[in-house]
Structure formats: structure tokens, C-alpha cells
Amino acid sequence: MANPLYHKNIVSITDLTKSELELIVQLASIIKASGSQPYLQDKVIASCFFEASTRTRLSFETAVQRLKGSLIGFSDSSNTSTRKGETLSDSITMISSYADAIIMRHPKEGAARLASEVSTVPVINGGDGANQHPTQTLLDLFSIAECQGTLSDLKVAFVGDLKYGRTVHSLAQALSLFNPKFYFIAPEALKMPSYLERDLKEHGIPFEYLESLEEGVQKVDILYMTRVQKERFDPTEYMHIASKYVLTAEMLQGAQANMKVLHPLPRVDEIHPDVDASEHAYYFQQAENGVYARQALLSLVMNEEIKELTDA
Amino acid sequence: MRETMAVEAIKKGTVIDHIPTAQGLNILALIQKRDANAQVTVGLNLPSKGSGRKDIIKVEGWLFSEEDAGEMALYAPLATINIIDNYKVVKKFKIGLPDSFVGIFACPNSNCISHPEPVPSRFKVVKKEQKVRLRCHYCERTFSDSLFK
């Protein structure tokens, strides 16, 4: 089969079509079940983290190693030419002449888009400021498909910081291709940005705000929790607000049997540790799935043909 | 008082007419950014039959292309461009909104990569229900046109 992701830059989740998202999820599932072919053998992958990110970097680098690729790169920009004043454009031009693909994280929004336009090899965005983090969305989609058996027609609640949380924005955009119903549970100050609400309305995606977390738990297939950050509020206000968005095992009693709780991690207080033992908890499997989703993506971007998909 | 007496006629050049009041100086800034030596006459708050008041700009010696005019579209999408030769209007067109703006406005997002890098800013024009918004090609944020005025 023709692989539409071959040599494609992966900058923004909105660059990917529904069938491309399904392809990545399908391959991630196959890789998780049966292991992967050495799809990056003899390839050099540059892992360029202009901003530190432990989970994303380690997950990407594990994926590269499992696909038998070689890694070059850096885990923060403190010892790179960036500190000497080199532009990102020059850095990427240089790195793309060494490596076969570039994985990058950068604190500035739009950095991956710019890099993809100067690079001669594919660029995969591992997060650009508050803008996009497409591979987080891919692992979220894979986790949802895995625990629900489908991505279509699901009821999904997003809880916590919906204003600044880029994982929420990207996942909502991606799921919009699959006929969802959304519930939003958030403090007034951290509601979904109006431009996203406008997009949902324009695409005919139903959504509503719920007053309490308990109400959301009863209604949905997926409860997507996020952290309400302390620095957004004064300390007293934070105590009051954050306490309303803490999930406990007791709250899960009326949940549907198939309901799963996801969280991009790290969590702080918003999911009580007593939820971990519940059959509804799925956030650690979700974190593990980051490696499979990234293996699937890297395999598809770097290989014109994928044997497992041809056989499937 | 007749309009033609408010601003002196030009022999050859461009007259931008029907600019909404308060936008004339924004357009002047764009013209000066393109050509600091442009010979310009500006009329502000002149009487207008249609909208009560308007701004008007006359640029001597520079015959605007539609692309030149497009740069000014965000400030005055309904303005009229008159190309003048030998004191006569030889071409007349509405400015109209282009599909994109390149290198004209800085991105309002201070954390956008377009600021520190040697690249021109790039915005896609998104027009829905009479509202104009600009979406940054790099940081992907969408901004109301009022942020640029």
C-alpha cells in the first residue's frame, strides 16, 4: 500500500487526515502486540531538545532504539550553538545535513513549522511552546482506540485546565474527525479557548460544560484529566478551585464499565492515588503507549512500505 | 466644501480614497515602510457622502499594483485605489482582502518563532461571518483583525 506519511513532516495534529491518524494507531497496535521490524536500521535520527522534556525525549529515544536506529542530539540547548546566538534556521539546516530525520522540541511556538521549511529531512515536532505536541495526541488516540476498541462516536470529558492545556486542544481537534460528544469540566478562568469552541461549533461537534466532576464520570467513555496549575491562581483561590477537580476512587462507582481515565502526566493532586488500583485507571498504560505510537510514526515517516500494514 | 479642494490634485500617482477614519495614519505607516521617500499627502476626517467622514491619501509618482494595495487591505478593505496619470483617473479598483499577508505585520504572540528568526511574518486571512481574523503560519494562533489596527 502507498504510505501517505512517508517523508512527511509531522508538525501539527491538524496536518494529519483521519485515515493517516487511523494508520498510525493501527501500526502502533500491531507493534505493541507483535514487536517491530528494524525500520530505522542504518538511519541516524537527530533528537534535538532545545528545551528539556524527560518523558517525551526518553520515549522518542526508546522508540528509535527499538527500531534499531542511531541517535545524535542534545537534551537541552545549554551546550549548543543556540547559546552563541545561532538562529534556529541555521541549526536545523546544519543538522539536516547530518541526520535522516529530526525530532525536536523548542520553547518557541512555530519552531517546528519553521524547521520543517528549512530542513531537507522530515521534522517531527516533540512540542513547540504552548502550540502543538502531535505525538502526545497520537499516543492519546492510540490509548483511546485500545481501551474502547474504536475512536468513533465516543463521549469524552476534558477536566481541569482547558485554557492552556495544549494536549486537550490537540486531542479535541483530532477526535473531532470521529463524531464525538465532548463534556468540559473546568473553572471559569480555565475554560476552553473561544477559538476552539468556535471551531467545534463550525464542525457541528456537540459539547457542553458540566458543573461537577461527579456528573462527568457518569456520562462518558473517556475521562481526560489535566492538572490545574498553581501559578494561575492566588494560593487561597487555588486550594478552593483545585479541590473541585480531584478525582477519587469513590467518585468512580457510577461510571460505565468501559470508562477509562487518561492523563498526560505528570499528575500532582488531581488524581488521588487510590484511583490507580481501579479498573478505570489507564494513565500508566497511556504513558507506555507513547513509545509504541512514536515507533509507529517513525516507521511510517521513514519507510515507504510497511510490511505489517501490507499483510494486515 | 468640495472634496477635491481638501487635498491637492496630483499629476501622476495613486489616490487611496474612502479610507475609514483613524486608519489613514496606519496606511501611511505602511507606505513609508515600503518607501521612506514617497511623496505623500494625507487628508484626515474629510467629509464623505457615504460614511460621513473618511481619510484620503495621495502618493505622488507611485502607481500602486493590486499587490501593493492588498497590503493595506486590513485597514481599509473597502477603500478605493485610483491610479492617476496626467491628472486623470486611468484605473480604479477596490482594495479587497488578499488570501495572506507576508512580512507586513508582526505576530502579536511574543513567543512566536517569527520574532527571533530571519523570516517574514506570514498570516492566512480567515474571513467568516463578516469577521476578519489572521492566522499565523508559524505559531498557528488566530487573531482578530483589531489587534493589528
TrEMBL record, chain A:
Name the gene behind this protein: pyrB
Species this chain originates from: Reinekea marinisedimentorum
Q: What is this protein called?
A: Aspartate carbamoyltransferase
Q: Which InterPro entries match?
A: Asp/Orn_carbamoyltranf_P-bd, Asp/Orn_carbamoylTrfase, Asp/Orn_carbamoylTrfase_sf, Asp_carbamoyltransf, Asp_carbamoyltransf_Asp/Orn-bd
Q: Name one GO biological process term.
A: 'de novo' UMP biosynthetic process
Pathway participation? Pyrimidine metabolism; UMP biosynthesis via de novo pathway; (S)-dihydroorotate from bicarbonate: step 2/3
NCBIfam families in the cross-refs: asp_carb_tr, PRK00856.1
Q: Which reaction does it catalyse?
A: carbamoyl phosphate + L-aspartate = N-carbamoyl-L-aspartate + phosphate + H(+)
Family, similarity comment: Belongs to the aspartate/ornithine carbamoyltransferase superfamily. ATCase family.
From TrEMBL, chain B:
Every copy of the Aspartate carbamoyltransferase regulatory subunit N-terminal domain together lies at 6-95
GO BP terms, alphabetized: 'de novo' pyrimidine nucleobase biosynthetic process; pyrimidine nucleotide biosynthetic process
Superkingdom of source: Bacteria
The yes or no answer to whether the keyword Zinc is present is yes
Q: Where does Zn(2+) bind?
A: C107, C112, C136, C139
Q: Is Metal-binding one of the keywords?
A: yes
Gene Ontology CC, one term: aspartate carbamoyltransferase complex
Q: Where is the Aspartate carbamoyltransferase regulatory subunit C-terminal domain?
A: 103-145
Name a Pfam family for this protein. PyrI
Q: Which NCBIfam families match?
A: ATCase_reg
Assembly and partners are described as:
Contains catalytic and regulatory chains.
What does the record give as the function of this protein?
A: Involved in allosteric regulation of aspartate carbamoyltransferase.
Q: Which family does it belong to?
A: Belongs to the PyrI family.
Instruction: Please identify the protein, giving its name as recorded.
Output: Aspartate carbamoyltransferase regulatory chain
Natural source organism: Reinekea marinisedimentorum
Q: Which gene encodes it?
A: pyrI
